[in-house]
Amino acid sequence: MDKPATPNSFRTGPDEQGMFGIFGGRFVAETLMPLILDLERHWNEVKNDPDFKAELQNLSTHYAGRPSKLYFAEGLTKHLGGARVYFKREDLNHTGSHKINNCLGQILLAKRMGKKRIIAETGAGQHGVASATVAARFGYPCVVYMGATDVARQSPNVFRMKLLGAEVRPVTAGHGTLKDAMNEALRDWVTNVEDTYYLIGTAAGPHPYPELVRDFQSVIGSEARAQILEQEGRLPDTIIACVGGGSNAIGMFHPFLDDRQVRIIGIEAGGRGLDGIEHCASMNAGAPGVLHGNRTYLLQNADGQIMDGHSISAGLDYPGVGPEHSWLRDSGRVEYVPILDDEALEAFQLTTRVEGIIPALESAHAIAHAVKIVPAMDKDQIVIVNLSGRGDKDVHTVASMLGMEI
Amino acid sequence: MTTRIDRRMAKLNAEGRPALVTYFMSGDPDYVTALSIMRALPKAGADIIEMGMPFSDPMADGPAIQAAGLRALKGGQTLVKTLQMAAEFRAGDNETPIVLMGYYNPIYIYGVDRFLKDAIASGIDGLIVVDLPPEMDEELCIPALKAGINFIRLATPTTDDKRLPKVLQNTSGFVYYVSMTGITGSALADTGKVAAAVRRIKGHTDLPVCVGFGVKTAEQARIIGANADGVVVGTAIVNAVASVLGPKGEKTADPAEAVATLVSGLSQGVRSARLAAAE
Fold this sequence. Notes:
heterodimer, A: alpha/beta, Rossmann fold, four-stranded antiparallel β-sheet, globular, B: TIM Barrel, 13 helices, 9 strands
């Protein structure tokens, strides 16, 4: 039997070792082990602490602007002529994406732990901006590691981070993308173990990060579930989110996992197609392996060397994925499908024109899949797409793809 | 069952001097050159050889070993070839212990059982796998011990007395004390602190304790060796290789000779370590 048996609930993981089935774990250097155990201890303390929850709730409401709206995308719905399409508007959050949810939670955790310095990695710069934002708000020095390629293609976000007082360190190793930034952040952490908090931006890395990032992001799905029940009186037929490391997706999916009638689809970056190596579809074209502290699906060669991958979207340009997604893939609860660069670019333009919303290129991947499946669905069916971020940061990339200069 | 590592450590202990443990990157800059470097190590005074297994994402390594790994991968090195290199070396030297050092993913992809079988056939004596802490012992450590291969664990300044027993539990061969937090190739740690740390670890185990991270010169090897059962040198050796490579990776001198010169000096350092301690 290839597939693991269907569990009674898909929401109970990880186990005490930080495993989701065979995925997850704590594959880190010994230097980091005591820190990770300390983080786990603090996390277990705060996750059921009413004071911690109240502080986070207060910041989420008054600082980040939650709850984010669940918006009926009437323009896109009419254009596609099928199911009713809703957007979960994470793009309307403070800093312009879902990343703030996780950063607020983790900065409060860092404060509890008495840490003095924040480090983070970033791909598209959305997590870097959110980290720099909470560091500014709570008075921490902040260093953000960012691949040199990404520094070039996401220059507006680099400037925002600098304005917020963060130091942006470009990483030239490898292709200069998220994977390399994460390596460098881990090297910083292993060097500055005493005072530094590593604010991981996605639901990956060693346990307990995948769990705690998921829990901080699950506000997305919890709100969306309550909002659709309020607005439509029933659960959606399908929910869709893009998956790089997969934090917006796991946050959207997790509260729906045990609603078996809801079809759940995660969208990977198909780049220039899955037949070559220019994509980041680790769950469609990779194999399980160990990187960045966890076992998960990875793009790698036959010798276990990690490949660099490619995506038009910096936030999806990562050769791995959070371990819980790998488990959800193998258990069959969530489908993961690729969307090509060109399809995402088309969805980006379409959404801008028919909705007056400029989506992040990452989120445009999720919309692109809705564009594919919605026309064939019934008009009384409901699809929710997680609009994880706004696309202002991407205008330079899109302009150059369209052959324009700004 | 004793291994080559146990026997070598016992012999050096009887001689009253610490071991010189030398790390080189297998396949850097190419297979043939790396094999010649490996063969030069014992002749120059190395007591134990650590063979670096190159990995694309060496998260605990500094710039020098990162670059060496990338040169090796670019030169076509794979885990298959690393094992083959060990076997070729072993054909001419059945005494010097060989420890493979690197990251887990290439081993995981190779397949743990197949890897252990092939490693034994290639004359491998021990493993250091940076990203497998005791919490993940079921992955490779336990199977390796069952197969008769030493699993050498890293202890660090963050490994406190409460955690040490867990770290030492399934460790064999020797304990590798990483003398500072940080990546490989960083500055040398305070020698007084190192001596205290070695004493602390020895309070928990009878295994030999080798110290690494930051040792670059014969003098440093002598000082560290005065208080440890072994001195590990890695980055300095990798740098010796890099120093005779041109901008395009072409050899400007013989890398094996450059490494041998360095290691001979380090070897003098460890051989005078206990004399220094007795002074």
